[in-house]
Amino acid sequence: MSQGFAISIQADALRYTTHAKPVLQDLVMQLPAQQWTCLLGRSGCGKTSILRKLAGLLEEAQWQGKIETDGQPLSGNIAYMAQQDLLLPWLSVLDNVCIAERLQGRSLSQDLRDKALLLLEKVGLKAYANNYPHTLSGGMRQRVALARTLLQERPIVLMDEPFSALDAVTRHKLQSLSFELLQGKTVLLVTHDPQEAVRLGHQIYVMEGSPANAHLLAGLASTPPRQLDEHSAALQNDILHRLGGEHV
Ligand SMILES: Nc1ncnc2c1ncn2[C@@H]1O[C@H](COP(=O)(O)OP(=O)(O)OP(=O)(O)O)[C@@H](O)[C@H]1O
């Protein structure tokens, strides 16, 4: 199993050609190896842009800065769960989960199918393996996309609001499952939910300002997954306070 490696991000400026002002400026983030980093910030501050830059998908923006690793390439080592589930309508749920293999033109081995079915079982969708995406609810589609991300076993995992469409109980369950299955990976999770960030993050960045940079939250001494106790409530308050400052 490929272990996650550390990534250092320095965005001096990120600007879309359609915008006069940069989206990001003087942003520095460290993603420690094999840890979960959670990223919060007001809508439109540039969280997805950071993920897309790491995933090599940000072609339409000008980027000044650098992204460094310990020498390992990002290309080919990233699993990216985008905000939109990007399920292919003409493929079954099972084939969508195995899409990375299919896109590489490889036939699906029985071993991979079994792994995919096990993941579908864990996300509560084994009975839907032969369904097509249009027959699923938004939350079910999100669970298929999560299973697809978990199947890839890449060292770096980028997730953009992966649990947002789920009911509270399913969300809690799938947070736990993802945390368990992504042990040893370097994870960057974008979320709007302070409780989720405090539960899962070894470290938490809150994006601030316009153009935005990233503030590393202090006081995360314990290791995740964290219980909901007085300490985590105080951390959530701190995040809300910082996010609130962005909405005045
Ligand atoms: N392809 C694009 N072309 C032009 N502008 C873009 C493009 N993608 C994003 N933007 C702009 O860049 C800014 C940051 O967008 P981004 O999607 O990174 O924000 P976000 O923090 O992920 O937002 P949200 O929380 O709403 O998902 C926004 O102002 C958005 O309009």
The largest sheet is: 6 strands, mixed
Q: Output the structural class.
A: alpha/beta
Report the order of strands and helices.
EEEHEEHHHHEHEHEEH
CATH fourth-tier homologous superfamily of the largest domain: P-loop containing nucleotide triphosphate hydrolases
Low-pLDDT residue intervals, each spanning 5 or more residues? none
Strand order of the largest sheet: 5-6-7-3-8-9
Q: What overall form do the CA principal axes indicate?
A: globular
Distance between the termini: 46 Å
Number of domains: 2
Strand fraction equals: 15-25%
Instruction: Just give the CATH class of the largest domain.
Output: Alpha Beta
Total of helices:
8
Mean pLDDT: 93
CATH topology of the largest domain: Rossmann fold
Family: Belongs to the ABC transporter superfamily.
Protein name: Putative hydroxymethylpyrimidine transport system ATP-binding protein
Keywords: ATP-binding, Nucleotide-binding, Transport
Pfam families: ABC_tran
